[in-house]
Specification:
Structural class: alpha/beta
Shape: globular
Number of domains: 2
Radius of gyration: 25 Å
CATH topology of the largest domain: TIM Barrel
Number of strands: 22
Distance between the termini: 73 Å
Largest sheet: 9 strands, mixed
Number of helices: 17
Oligomer: single chain
CATH architecture of the largest domain: Alpha-Beta Barrel
Strand content: 15-25%
CATH class of the largest domain: Alpha Beta
CATH superfamily of the largest domain: Alanine racemase
Length: 477
């Protein structure tokens, strides 16, 4: 009896499911025909489906607002987008169109805000939360934002040593500089030898506020920042650190009446497999309920709740589509599917921190299936994606090397961090060019609109960066 790849998926998961369906034997992504894109643009290519960004923002905002209402919570909810997750203008502007606020991490992030202000995409009421280590350049630009009239620029202190420089810059401002304090946390148990380098030790925060901030008329404490790097998870570790943060917030609030905001840094997870199960509604309600209960117990004002969602905002909008160039069998047991680019270059999260992505074929769903490893075309040992590192069995349709139509595969929900980590448009491992990038949107009638944001890197592009293109110099002579 023939067991097809479709049979395997259909029996193992609910399929079709949100974002994925089959149309005439070919996979579609949010209703978009991947076969159409492959025939039009060839492979490899990256795509960003912009409407998914708005859908994610609306989902989180609605769930938080419902939880506020359910718990009779008196504070407000503010959704911030982390620009570091994906800096592309079309992504940031799509998020801003949904009325989000912004979180920055470096001096150059502020330059983006200057540009967005110039274009009218942000205004001086937009809340901007400034995280990260404050270099002189970063501080100068944060102060410039304040001088320009940004009413809700909040500088979050990451270290006690920053306060002297921050105070010095704040002296020249007409109004007090709004600041926040980030609390250092203990990393998850498996990271026993790593205590977060970020933030200020909980045991030092109250005294730090009293000695360095309270008596300074040029500073006003507005935000308490609590960040878990592994994100918001329903486990003992997260809830334990969350409760520690709430207790410290309550103590700090009693010392500082201007403290109005609780920032829950660390994002929601996104779907990285077809069996993904995360109860967003339950988690959000538990967060709001716990903050509410703390405020009632401690008789303090309920703070505005901030979240900083980067991966959750943009991750599920992205995909990378490859052709399988060749099937290789090694050691009479290992099946390798070699794709037409480097995995190290295109999904660096996979080999650097073993991030998982949804892997699906675009075609040949009616073929029998086989266990496989996915190999990139660079010469590096680490340029692969297999079941050993990801604690899951990778299965794809069988095919023969001489078939007329190659097997096409896609890695999905790759919209966050991949281009930032790999260095979009720069030099890649083995000089393998960055794939073309396709932007997908919908027009006013709901029809798909696909445009090429950037074509595949050319030899000339790379030679320019590396300093080999002397012809331009010769022409100038």
């Amino acid at each position: 009896m023939k067991h097809t790849y479709f049979d395997l998926i259909d029996q193992s998961y609910y399929f079709p499911q949100e974002g994925f369906d089959l149309k005439e034997g070919y996979l579609s992504f949010h209703g978009l025909s991947l076969k159409y894109l492959i025939e039009k643009y060839g492979t490899p290519f990256k795509l960003l489906y912009l409407p998914r960004i708005g859908e994610q923002i609306k989902k989180a905002r609605n769930l938080f607002n419902r939880a506020l209402k359910k718990n009779k919570y008196k504070g407000n909810y503010n959704y911030c987008y982390c620009t570091k997750c994906c800096h592309f203008s079309h992504v940031v502007k799509t998020a801003l169109n949904e009325g989000v606020h912004l979180e920055t991490s470096s001096a150059f992030d502020i330059d983006l805000i200057f540009k967005l202000l110039e274009e009218g995409s942000v205004n001086k009421n937009t809340i901007v939360v400034h995280n990260g280590y404050k270099t002189e350049s970063y501080l100068e630009k944060i102060i410039k934002l304040n001088q320009l009239g940004f009413k809700n620029s909040i500088l979050v202190l990451d270290s006690k040593s920053e306060i002297s420089r921050v105070s010095k810059y704040a002296e020249g401002l007409e109004k007090p500089l709004k600041i926040g304090i980030r609390m250092a946390i203990d990393e998850e148990p498996q990271s026993a030898y790593y205590t977060s380098r970020l933030g200020i030790r909980p045991s030092e925060i109250i005294n730090f506020y009293k000695e360095e901030i309270e008596a300074n008329p040029k500073l006003t404490l507005k935000m308490f920042h609590f960040f878990i790097d592994s994100g918001i998870k329903d486990n003992l570790y997260y809830w334990g650190e969350f409760q520690k943060a709430l207790k410290l917030f309550a103590s700090l609030k009693k010392e500082c009446s201007s403290l109005k905001a609780l920032n829950l840094g660390g994002g929601f997870p996104i779907r990285n497999n077809l069996g993904f199960d995360y109860d967003y509604e339950y988690i959000i309600n538990e967060i709001v309920k716990n903050i509410k209960q703390l405020c009632v117990d401690e008789d303090i004002e309920e703070p505005d709740i901030f979240t900083e969602f980067g991966k959750y905002t943009v991750g599920e909008s992205g995909a990378i589509i490859f052709s399988v160039l060749e099937q290789k069998v090694q050691n009479d047991r290992e099946v390798w599917y070699m794709v037409d680019n480097s995995l190290m270059n295109t999904i660096p999260d996979a080999w650097s921190i073993l991030e998982k992505f949804i892997l699906l074929p675009v075609n040949k769903w009616n073929n029998e299936y086989t266990k496989v490893n996915i190999g990139g075309i660079s010469c590096d040992h680490s340029d692969y994606y297999n079941s050993e590192d990801f604690n899951q069995q990778l299965v794809l349709p069988r095919y023969e090397n001489d078939e007329e139509e190659p097997l096409y595969i896609g890695f999905f929900h790759t919209g966050a961090y991949q281009d930032s980590i790999s260095g979009y448009g720069g030099i890649k491992h083995c000089l393998i060019p960055a794939p073309k990038m396709i932007i997908i949107d919908r027009d006013e009638k709901g029809n798909f609109v696909d445009t090429v944001y950037r074509n595949e890197q050319t030899v000339e592009d790379m030679l320019d960066i590396l300093g080999y293109n002397t012809s331009k110099e010769n022409k100038n002579e």
